[in-house]
Amino acid sequence: MVDIVGPDTFGGTWEAAVREAPDRDFLVYLDEADGRATYTYGQFDRLVRRTAAGFAACGIGYQTIVALQVGNSPEFVSCFLALARLGAVVVPLGLKTPAPELRRLYDTCGATWAIVEAATQDLHAGLRDHAGYLPGGLIVAHGEAAAGALALDTLGTPTAPVPVPPPVGSDDLAELLFTSGTTATPKAVMITHANLVYSGHFATWQASLRGDDRVLTTMPACHSNFQLVALTGVIVAQATLVLAERYSARRFWAQVRTERATVIQLTAMMARTLLLQPPAAAEREHLVRETLYFMPLSTTEKTAFEARYGVRFMNSYGSTESICWVVTDPPVGGRRWPAVGRAALGYEVAITDEAGRSLPPGQVGEFRIKGVPGRTLMAGYWRDPAATRAALT
């Protein structure tokens, strides 16, 4: 099979970007204390290599399952990329995941290691001591590591060689990403290297990304909106990612303007809270070309936001299982709000009856997506063949 991904892996895609644009800004990090850190592709690759070497020295390697409970930060990105380079399987977790849910997630994924914030290390250590989770160990990404845990910044050295892992293929598992649990118990979606690379090509097409674009996001790092839209798209386009530690309605639009963002991500909550902010001088003087928008917003609110801030929404619909936005406004041409858009690159969609027969225009039915499992769609649900068969008919 030949497709846009081919044999590429996510680690290989990162390495290609480093080779071709080593001096271009890759990551601009904005913390809550108004601090700002900038890394070129070359500088960040040195961090990724050091992190990968440290992980390898701990025994983390090909298909090792590693939980990653770290907030928006350079450390999340470096760990994500380092694990991909080693062929490990990353399991991103929300920062506020409570203990009962964390136990269920560990039961599901069987993580060997966990990389966490200092504030949550006692919770993970307790689960490890009393339930036998994390037989490999616990690594603390930020803050002081307690007894029995390792500190991320002490692993590896700037000159430590990164062991060459077994050959990693595009069909190999790269990530287990849990669904939100809106309609059922969260399930672990199997995401391959091909899925990650495809999502980057998709985001590049959807937002017409170029190397001189600056994509600003406040989306939580553990969510697909950050990983499969902002991060992968930036790497494929060899553009710049502007990552805020957290969303702040008071700061957001000033960050958009100051950081010269050309593409931004927006949810309904963000749009509503931004409309509540007092008008600021020159708030329409920005470089935003595309506003990637997700989730419901009234026509009145949309019209008010676009008029006030001088932007145009790009509407989309997708799910964790679909990897990308299977229906979206096209990158060029007309947009028909409130319609979500058209079938997107690499997908076919249909509205069907209960028997799977396509319905004529104007009829209400079930929304079905056609793609390629492990490439444009998830590979399946982890250790749940029945649910996988039901979803991937």
Question: Could you explain how this protein is built, in words?
Answer:
This protein has 393 residues and is α/β, with parallel strands linked by helices. It is 33% helix and 22% strand. The protein is built from 11 helices and 19 strands. It has helices spanning 10-20, 41-58, 74-86, 99-109, 121-131, 193-206, 224-237, 249-258, 268-275, 299-309, 385-391, and strands at residues 25-30, 36-40, 65-69, 89-92, 113-117, 137-142, 150-151, 173-178, 188-192, 214-217, 240-244, 263-267, 290-294, 313-318, 325-328, 342-343, 348-352, 366-370, 380-381. The strands form 4 sheets. A 9-stranded mixed beta sheet has the order 2-1-11-10-12-13-14-15-16. β3 (65-69), α3 and β4 (89-92) form a beta-alpha-beta unit. The two termini are 21 Å apart. The model has no long low-confidence stretch (mean pLDDT 94).
